[in-house]
Amino acid sequence: MTTAASIRRGRITRRIVRDVAPKVLVYLLLLPLTCFIIMPFAWMVGSSFKPIGSGIKFPPQFIPNPIVFTNYPLVFKTIPFLMYTRNSLIVTLTVIVGEVLSASVVGYSFARLRFPGRDLMFVVLLATMMIPYPVTMVPTFIVFKILRWVDTYLPLTIPAFFAPPFAVFLLRQFFLTVNRELDDAAKVDGCNELRILFQILMPLSKPALTTVAIFSFTANWNDFLGPLIYLSSARMYTLALGINYLRSFRGGGDLAPQMAAAVMFSLPCIVLFFLGQKYFVQGIVTTGLKG
Amino acid sequence: MARSGTLAGPRRRSGMGLARREAMMGLLLVSPWLLGFLIFTLGPMAASLWFSFCEYKVIQPPRWIGLGNYQRMFTDDLFYRSLSVTTRYTLVSVPLGILAALAVAVLLNQNVPGARVIRTIFYLPSVVSGVAVALVFSWIFNYRFGILNYVIGLFGIRGPDWLGRPQWALWAFILMSLWGIGGNMIILLAALQGVPVSLHEAAEIDGANSFVRFWTITMPMISPALLLVTIMSIIGSWQVFTSAYIMTGGGPAYATLFYLLYLYRNAFNWFEMGYASAMAWVLFVIILVCTLLTLRGSQSLVHYEGA
Q: Residues 176 to 215 of B: which have CB under 8 A from any A CB?
């Protein structure tokens, strides 16, 4: 009896050494790294509940003491936060609509139709994904200035209606995975291409469309350089510009209200991320873009 | 659309007619992108090439000065500075970031419980990138009251004045870039998960230990993903703007004058559109050369399945 028990005990010990010990090691390595990632978030949220003046206090505290809630209303009082939010939403939602519609049409054409120059065009499209925004920034600005579009939302939204390459690529890849027999059957029934796209392919492509929409939202919500170049009057500012503006105010220049604004600014993207996590992962893995 | 035509067409006309109709439709549907490419990419690039040979201060029409803008770069100390700042940043932050992303991806690939949660946490910074991050980090890096120097202080080391000293400021940005490795990590993790288990099992039977297996199986299998991540990171590192604009404005003593920040100042603060266009073209060439060099250099290292 005792030998059987000790053998069993030995087996358990060996199992622990073989299976559990490496996992503990993995945790020990991951833990400090994870803390490094979480720390700025914790600091941001914690500081948004600190009293005014705590930005210049030593030692810095993670957990606010006392907890105050006045920083959030203070942000609304110092800058027109709601107006900036509305502006950001106008830009972001318009871009999403434009991007989803135009990229679906173009992605469909690349995935399903044969036309001269298609493969060359697709290579060019892939190449343009590598061209950095700054390269075209200056002349595009001059064109929009000549058109008198500066200080309107047109320069920020209209390009989205011309099928941005990232979205086209993602949708084309997805359309290729949808069984062709479905649209062939529809064709026999007399559906034209646009009906096939809107009534058959798009309803089947909700995951890919969601991915495009989510990436488009975070990219445009966070965009700083575009609005900085094109929007000059304060009432047109998007939230990204607006909360930076907060720093120039006497009351808003402090740590606590800035962090309250940062929390409110990043909240929509964080919520969206948690709701649509699998779409994020899918989008990154298919396109290699990091959002 | 002409639906009766589609119905009657195929039977009356030959197969050529059908193919032609499809080609017309294809070109029609692809035209939004084609127009966008011409208006927002090719056109502007051509225009900026033209501007780059001109003096153009917006209020007057562009005046041809030949290679003047390019010659000016050779004598422009700030141009050199922005080039050197961005090059140093790229050389340190890209390899460091990819190593870190790979390390985390390998750890998360060990199937430990909770790996999904940790993966989520690592990706989170990529979602909030931009202004909010810059605001938070300008407080974190604060010399006297910042949380970073406080934590360093717990180990008995006096933290530097991160954003206030020229020799430290770039390191602050490099540290911050490490915070955003989540996107790369997810790409590498997906690649790791695509490595067939059978290969590892076969090698294990042959007596290969895990270190050997990592170098001879895992690394070749994920090399295309590593290449992709490297190229995208290099392109990204040449486009640092928001954080520098908000946190330091290029200072102290131009220690964080990133290339794009200097380009922005030339174009939109000083209205030197010609000079800025020349800088944009130089940036384009730099990124192109970096990408081609990376592709070249990796040719023997990257393994493509079935190639």
A: 179, 182-184, 186-187, 190
Res B101: pLDDT: 95
Domain ranges of chain A: 2-47, 71-287
Q: Is B239 on the interface with A (CB under 8 A)?
A: yes
pLDDT of the residue at B295: 87
Does an H or E element contain B190, and which? Answer: helix B182-193
Q: CA nearest A107 in B: which residue?
A: B30
Task: Please list, in sequence order, all residues whose beta carbon lies within 8 angstroms of the beta carbon of residue A183, skipping any fewer than 6 positions away.
Answer: A112, A191, A196, A200, A201
Is residue B251 in some structural domain?
A: yes
CA distance B144 to chain A (A): 8
Residue B304 belongs to some domain of the structure: no
Residue numbers in A near B124 (CB within 8 A): 37, 41, 270, 273
Alpha-carbon distance of B122 to B144, in angstroms, equals 28
What is the homologous superfamily of the domain A71-287 according to CATH? Answer: MetI-like (1.10.3720.10)
The residue to which tokens 């810059």 are assigned: B134
Domain CATH code at residue B291: 1.10.3720.10
Interface test with A, best of B127, B185, B234, B238 (most A CBs within 10 A): B127
* Percent composition of chain B: helix, strand, coil (DSSP 3-state, to 5): 75, 0, 25
Give the span between the Cα atoms of B2 and B6, in whole angstroms: 7
| Calpha distance A127→A4 (Å, rounded) | 68
Distance from CA of B101 to the nearest CA of A (A): 11
* pLDDT given at position B99: 95
For residue range B181-237, list pLDDT tens digits in order. Answer: 988 998 899 889 888 888 888 888 888 788 888 888 888 888 888 998 999 899 999
Percentage of chain A exceeding pLDDT 70: 95
Structural domain of B160: 71-298
If pLDDT is split at 50, 70 and 90, which confidence band does B15 have?
A: low
Indicate the DSSP class of residue B253. T
A residues 132..191 contacting B (CB < 8 A): 132-143, 145, 159, 161-165, 168, 190
Instruction: Encode pLDDT of B96-135 as tens digits.
Output: 999 999 999 999 988 888 888 888 899 899 888 789 999 8
In chain B, residues with a C-beta closer than 8 Å to the C-beta of A25 are none
Contact (CB<8Å) A138/B34: no
Interface check B241 vs A, CB under 8 A: yes
Can you read off the two tokens belonging to residue A98?
């434009």
The whole-angstrom separation of Cα B243 and Cα A222 is 12
- The partner residue sitting opposite B51, judged by closest CB among A33, A139, A247, is A139
For residues A48-54, average pLDDT: 83
Query: Given CB atoms, is A240 within the 8 Å cutoff of chain B?
Result: yes
Q: Are B109 and B251 members of one domain? A: yes
Question: What is the model's pTM?
Answer: 0.88
Q: Do A288 and B187 touch (CB under 8 A)?
A: yes
Instruction: Give the ipTM.
Output: 0.86
- Residue A273: exposed, middle, or buried by beta-carbon count in 10 A (0-12, 13-18, 19+)? buried
